[in-house]
Write a structure and sequence with these properties.
Layout (H helix, E strand, L loop, with lengths): L5 E2 L7 H10 L6 E6 L12 E9 L2 H13 L22 E2 L2 H11 L3 H4 L5 H10 L4 H10 L1 H10 L17 E7 L6 E5 L7 E5 L11 H13 L7 E7 L2
Parallel strand pairs: 1-4
Antiparallel strand pairs: 2-8, 3-5, 3-8, 5-6, 6-7
Helix pairs in contact: 1-7, 5-6
GO molecular function: cysteine-type deubiquitinase activity
Keywords: Hydrolase, Protease, Thiol protease, Ubl conjugation pathway
Family: Belongs to the peptidase C12 family.
């Protein structure tokens, strides 16, 4: 990837920070992020989980596996929005340290969450403008040039209890990825702006009353943790439709 032209302070993995940011961008209270403390339920949430955001340590092992998986992928996936006519909105990350922001955008742009945004909010307008474009580079340019997005992000980036880097260009040891299931696809997708495109993680059949915290999805996340040999530096949030 070419050097970043823009750098942000990384977001803390805190639902309060995430929720403050999306409210500034007009996302209604019917959509909120919540911490998931256990992969195995029950989960005391006010509604169904529409997307999952995993925060993981960027260990050497993780970076090797990511590079190997991307190298093995078919070239046709590079920058594309999905396969077999499925529409997955994916954003290539071109802003350094903003993987939390890209996870939020992926969560809100895909599946039932998009229906909750309406049409009048800044977030809805931004997502609509990006979704109308087929090229990942064009979507990336829209995100980079959005002064409204950058202003809202800057107002919350220093919130939270963790120390923030002295410089937005400093490297951090954690990364955010998002898991969604576009409506009607019956598939689980991993969306990470640092990858070559959307990653199809397999069939996702949800039973009555199940959402993205069903075992078919959480088993994928559990696999990440197991491959890290018991590394406990993971956290998980869910985007929940409330009420």
């Amino acid at each position: 990837m070419a050097p970043y032209s823009k750098h942000f302070i990384p977001l803390e993995s805190d639902p309060a920070v995430f929720n403050d940011l999306i409210r500034l961008l007009g996302v209604p209270p019917s959509l909120s992020f919540f911490d998931i403390l256990l992969l195995d339920g029950p989960h005391d949430l006010p509604g169904p989980a529409l997307a999952l955001v995993l925060v993981l340590p960027t260990t050497e092992g993780y970076e090797r596996r990511k590079a190997a998986e991307d190298a093995d992928d078919d070239d046709d996936r590079d920058g594309k929005d999905g396969e077999d006519g499925e529409h997955v909105v994916w954003y290539r990350q071109t802003i350094n340290n903003a993987c939390g922001l890209y996870a939020i955008l992926h969560a809100l742009s895909n599946g039932a969450a998009r229906d909750e945004l309406g049409t009048a909010s800044p977030m809805a307008a931004l997502i609509d403008a990006c979704a109308a474009l087929s090229a990942a580079d064009q979507r990336a340019a829209i995100l980079e040039s959005s002064a409204e997005l950058e202003e809202a992000y800057a107002s919350v980036a220093r919130q939270g209890s963790s120390a923030v880097p002295d410089s937005a260009e400093d490297e951090v040891d954690f990364h955010y990825v998002c898991f969604v299931s576009p409506r009607g696809s019956g598939r689980l997708y991993e969306l990470d702006g640092d990858r070559r495109g959307p990653i199809d993680r397999g069939l996702l059949i949800l039973g009555p009353g199940e959402d993205l915290l069903a075992p078919a999805a959480t088993d994928v996340i559990r696999g990440y943790m197991e491959r890290e040999g018991g590394n406990v530096n993971f956290s998980l949030m869910a985007l929940v439709r409330c009420g």
